[in-house]
Specification:
With 340 residues, the chain is of the alpha/beta class. The protein has helices at 10-19, 39-42, 61-79, 96-108, 117-123, 143-156, 252-266, 310-330, and strands spanning 2-6, 26-30, 46-47, 84-85, 89-92, 112-115, 132-135, 139-141, 160-162, 177-180, 198-208, 220-221, 225-228, 234-238, 275-285, 292-297, 300-304. A hairpin with a 3-residue loop joins strand 12 and strand 13. The structure holds flavin-adenine dinucleotide.
Length: 340
């Protein structure tokens, strides 16, 4: 059975991995920009169950975290190097509302601890003095490395890559099934005109980490976030949420204006830090903020709507979609094997 997947981000590669567990699948992954050419390649890499201003536990967070953790391990094994760090994350409460919300979050979730000002500064001396919560279950993912490793694992199972932008579903007529994991880029396909996706642009800055300052031990998150990059000589600071944007390209003046002041009130040591890069990606947001699986045409599926929680949701949704597809073609015999 021949399957085409269009889009080599978190959703497409995780779906490929799950489908390739079946011995009768031949799979080609198409992407005009290469692996991680869309929002996934830009993702800062925060993975935790309390995404959002109020630190409420996200819907299906445990299942999502568990499914992504399994794929992180597969990726790390295929590259023979870690692609993530299970270090936890500090969410600093700068406002009265955050203090209220974060305190409540810590009172009901066993993986979250309330830290007073002193404790916050003990574990993260760079911070301005504020209390916050420590999310023990948070993971920092090196997004590009993770994608590279997971796709390598797919190739070892026979997955093929084609560096091609698909102009029309007609180009894929030789395939038995098509999976569209194109993120926010659904406009090109008239077959998807009824799908309601709002594109939300996000930008991040890469900043040189100040010399003679020890690197952060944990990602820091509040109204903005900062985490160390893979080589620890720089950090990633984000992000913007832009619903009205004219271009999908990085817009440095806007990103600086939106991100830098928030970051330096959180981490004064970053005031005046050199900007090494500004990157932009487009998130796909659905009306109910949950990912979407749809079958707009017979044997053509869509998986999108990851919003800003792609790391939390892609693996669990990709597994669900693969089960649907294998169930359609192989019924009871689908035999989706264990992921490891
Ligand atoms: C700045 C920023 C920071 C973020 N940080 C985080 C974070 O820390 N944690 C988190 O969980 N999430 C984060 N996100 C959100 C996360 O990146 C997305 O939820 C996730 O990447 C969506 O993955 P996807 O595979 O569905 O889509 P994408 O990653 O957008 O993948 C779609 C792919 O399809 C390809 N494509 C599109 N059309 C075609 C076509 N016609 N033919 C061939 N290929 C095509 C594109 O080139 C692209 O590679 C961030 C997003 C942004 C923008």
């Amino acid at each position: 059975m021949k399957i085409a997947i269009v889009g080599a981000g978190f959703s497409g590669i995780a779906t490929a991995w799950n489908l390739l567990q079946h011995p009768k699948i031949t799979l080609t992954l198409f992407d005009g920009k290469g692996v991680g050419g869309g929002a996934s390649g830009m993702a800062a890499g925060l993975l935790h169950p309390y995404v959002g201003a109020h630190a409420k536990k996200n819907w299906m967070a445990n299942e999502g975290l568990q499914a992504t953790t399994a794929l992180l391990q597969i990726s790390a094994k295929s590259l023979n190097t870690p692609v993530s760090e299970s270090v936890g994350m500090l969410r600093i409460a700068l406002t009265e509302q955050q203090r209220h919300d974060f305190h409540y979050c810590a009172s009901i979730n066993p993986d979250v601890e309330w830290f007073d000002e002193t404790r916050c500064q003990q574990i993260s001396p760079h911070n301005s003095p504020h209390p916050g919560i420590f999310i023990h279950s948070a993971i920092a993912v090196h997004a590009s490395l993770y994608l590279k490793g997971l796709w390598k694992a797919c190739e070892a199972r026979g997955g093929m890559f084609n560096l091609l932008s698909i102009q029309s579903l007609h180009d894929l007529k030789e395939f038995d099934a098509i999976v569209l994991t194109v993120g926010a880029d659904i406009g090109r396909f008239p077959e998807l005109k009824d799908i309601r996706i709002t594109p939300v642009k996000g930008q991040i800055l890469e900043l040189a980490w100040p010399q003679h300052t020890p690197p952060l031990r944990y990602p820091i998150n509040s109204q903005a976030y900062v985490l160390m990059s893979y080589d620890r000589t720089s950090c990633i600071a984000g992000t913007t949420f832009e619903r009205d944007f004219r271009t999908s390209e990085p817009d440095l003046p806007f990103a600086k204006d939106q991100i830098l002041s928030k970051i330096s009130s959180l981490l004064p040591c970053l005031e005046g830090a050199e900007i090494l890069a500004c990157k932009a990606g487009i998130r796909a947001s659905t009306p109910d903020r949950k990912p979407l699986i749809a079958e707009p045409l017979k044997n053509t599926w869509l998986l999108t709507g990851m919003g800003s929680k792609g790391l939390l949701y892609h693996a669990v949704y990709a597994r669900k979609l693969a089960e649907i597809i294998l169930g359609r073609f192989f019924g009871e015999e689908r035999g989706l094997q264990q992921q490891n």
